[in-house]
Amino acid sequence: MPNAIETFHLRKEYSSVIAVEDLSLVVPAGCFFGFLGPNGSGKSTTIACLTGLLDATRGETRLLGQPFHADAIDLKRRIGVMPETLGLFDALYAHEFLSFQGRMYGLDKETTRRRGTELLEALDLANQGRTPLSEFSTGMRKRVAFAAAMIHGPEILFLDEPFESIDPDGVGMMKQWLRQFASRGGTIFMTSHVLETVERLCDRVAIITRPGALVWEGDISALAADGAIAANGRQFRTLEELFLAVAGRRYAPALEWL
Ligand SMILES: Nc1ncnc2c1ncn2[C@@H]1O[C@H](COP(=O)(O)OP(=O)(O)O)[C@@H](O)[C@H]1O
Ligand SMILES: [Mg+2]
Questions:
Q1: For the chain, what is the domain count?
Q2: Cα(251) to centroid(ligand 1), Å
Q3: Domain of 150, in residue numbers
Q4: Nearest CA to ligand 1 atom 10
Q5: Residues with Cβ within 5 Å of ion ligand 2?
Q6: How far apart are CA 134 and CA 69, in angstroms?
Q7: Domain check: are 112 and 165 in the same one?
């Protein structure tokens, strides 16, 4: 089976900022991959470049074994994305947006309707049929974006901070679906600052620091199995300890006026 995601020497410059300098990553098919890093380290930019939402300045990306670029429409149909910006159309109702999304990704009308209804009911949004997305709360908007990323049954799911702003009940449901998706061979590329959750869900993680520089990458299954992981010649009991060791600033300066 080809790797799900491969990116070589990815670079993204905004007008005055290098957001990602030179990132190479390989994510095997069927992997639940955690993409971690401090604020501003280039995670969202990387996801946007890997999914065609932004043009990379340089570098090559292959998805599902095929070269990926902004015009690779057939390949785009095989991925689902929950971007940082969510990508909702605010004037639409949730069910309209999911219909649009399902049809755009190639589902027939009946399947789109059935899955849309099922998702909105499960996500407790079924009674919001007369509320435009512009009037949804942040957590409700995230739920819709999550549903939109999944509705067409993609082979790879890209999720940028999927759990942020979602209540515990919603997070629990999303985690169950993600586990099911992964157990059936789907690949997940997810950013999250909730390291306990990453530790429980993910098979592998990459940790980057600004600007998109890989500082650690590896299998973390030993954390769940043995309660510890060996990395950089040391033992870590949690992913948080490992994260702080490779990407943290370690101490907070005393604020005299506080
Ligand atoms: N649209 C933009 N224009 C200019 N700079 C940006 C833009 N988006 C992100 N950046 C910059 O790129 C860097 C990486 O940002 P981002 O990818 O959002 O990081 P993360 O998702 O890890 O928090 C930051 O320095 C940020 O200020
Ligand atoms: Mg981000």
A1: 2
A2: 24
A3: 88-154
A4: 19
A5: 43-44, 84
A6: 31
A7: no
pLDDT at residue 225 greater than cutoff 90? no
Average pLDDT estimate for 114-121: 97
* Whether residue 70 is found in the same domain as residue 170: yes
52 burial class (0-12, 13-18, 19+ CB within 10 angstroms)?
Answer: buried
Q: What is the pLDDT of residues 169-192, one digit of tens each?
A: 999 999 999 999 999 999 999 999
Give the residue, by CA position, lying nearest to ligand 1 atom 24: 40
pLDDT at 131: 97
Beta-strand pair 156-160/79-82:
parallel
Residue nearest to atom 2 of ligand 1 (CA): 14
Q: What is the pLDDT of residues 19-62, one digit of tens each?
A: 999 999 999 999 999 999 999 999 999 999 999 999 999 999 99
Looking at residue 1, its pLDDT comes to: 79
Residue 47 alpha carbon to ligand 2 centre in Å: 9
End-to-end CA distance of the chain: 56
Q: How far is the CA of 69 from the centre of ligand 1 (A)?
A: 21
* Whether the predicted pLDDT of 88 surpasses 90: yes
Task: Please work out whether the CB of residue 44 comes within 6 Å of at least one atom of ligand 1.
Answer: yes
* Alpha carbon distance 102, 151 (integer Å): 6
Q: Ligand 1: does its nearest atom lie under 6 Å from the Cβ of 37? A: yes
Which residue's C-alpha comes closest to atom 6 of ligand 1? 14
The pair of structure tokens assigned to 228 is 């510890």
